[in-house]
């Protein structure tokens, strides 16, 4: 998904970019005799260290034993320089071959202008304050300097949509690092970790200059250029109007919550999806590179504090969502679905919440092995076919206990799930929700008493389903039609009871949260405990005209077949833990 480029790793032979009066970056070279930089990575417990520097336009990256005498390294550097100089000289016609070998370049390692003893081992010799001298060139040694071990730009770039590089930083602080963006032959167009190209940038490649830093030191610059040019965006998207309601971050005691099934790429790219489920969607709009641009922009514009996502591909989480959400100020956790390539992701704003603990479960495994669910399992045993059907499902429940950093005595128990999908699986979903609620009740009572439950997800259940009745009424009777959803041969009616008082659907029951060619209905929910939190605002869903502009979802203006739910919540004053 990301293009890769060789990073420039040496100040002595990298191009320095200076902002000229015309507003462009011009190239300059360090003057002869200026102190350059050599970077040494040396970690306790590792047998090797690395030494990186540039000499005569060539990058040197040496891997040496930590316990090797430094004199051997200095000798190797000198011999390599002599060999490379010899390769670069061509013998003139008629010139006799030289009988004398080129003298080895003088290579020294100094500390305070005094030579370091050549018998000293590498791990002790290469430290801050030492200077590597190779002939007339001098290098200030930086040991374990701030370093971008990788830096990549997304392959697909669109005007009006945020670009977030994928970065891995060692020995530095991402908040201290500097980022300078360029376009149109290195004209500076922006700074900061996130950049939004304008229409003026369409057709140009995007450049990025990354300077790693910590509190006291600068590392070596990495410079990137995008593989492709910036393209035009799709125009108005279904979420643009919604962003008008979420322009500001929430202030305590309020917080904003998002729940969203983002449509896993593993499902969007099937032949069934392209020809049967979403035949109305332009093929390019089903491509992940295109959809992830829309997803990043949509999520960033909500200025949320808590985001629960379903149908998240593992690769999308690692390569696209983590870089973007980290840049937007979020930390996140991922729970992959057993034997699948997609799962659940929960993101929380790091200035607002701290992750105390995680208590994820596979619902079928919990049902089969945890004594908490022994009564439910016993009831299912009377219908072996239904029991087997439930136990075969890989549905997971992601549970994150979050501490509110602004009021540390308050905690959230954030649950995120995606229940079984089949239209006749109402009975399976009822059992799954029964297991989920019992597990959540146990977690709160034993780990964080008084924590407020926020339960998000794609429940694949309409408002009149048994699942929603269990949540909103705390029980579901034996007579509910969902117990008979798979036919009389698989029915297993029981009186299912929730450990929680009635919960509230924070966004109500909109006409639909899933709109495809063959189905429209409300399947997604954010449930809260009304004695812990109140709803202060529900962000309006896109209008029906917006949803159906391209017939149905997904479309060129909407990245998923689901619509995100967004609401603002307010801590209740009586929730004094």
UniProtKB/TrEMBL annotation:
Residues 259-562 form the Endonuclease/exonuclease/phosphatase domain. One of its GO terms (molecular function) is poly(A)-specific ribonuclease activity. It comes from the Eukaryota. InterPro entries: CCR4/nocturin_mRNA_transcr, Endo/exonu/phosph_ase_sf, Endo/exonuclease/phosphatase, PDE12-like_N. The keyword Hydrolase applies. Its cofactor is Mg(2+). GO terms for biological process: mRNA processing; nuclear-transcribed mRNA catabolic process, deadenylation-dependent decay. Keywords: Exonuclease, Hydrolase, Magnesium, Metal-binding, Mitochondrion, mRNA processing, Nuclease, Phosphoprotein, Transit peptide. SUPFAM superfamilies: DNase I-like. Residues 77-103 are annotated as: Disordered. It is found in: Mitochondrion matrix. Residues 146-231 form the 2',5'-phosphodiesterase 12-like N-terminal domain. Belongs to the CCR4/nocturin family. This is 2',5'-phosphodiesterase 12. It comes from Periophthalmus magnuspinnatus.
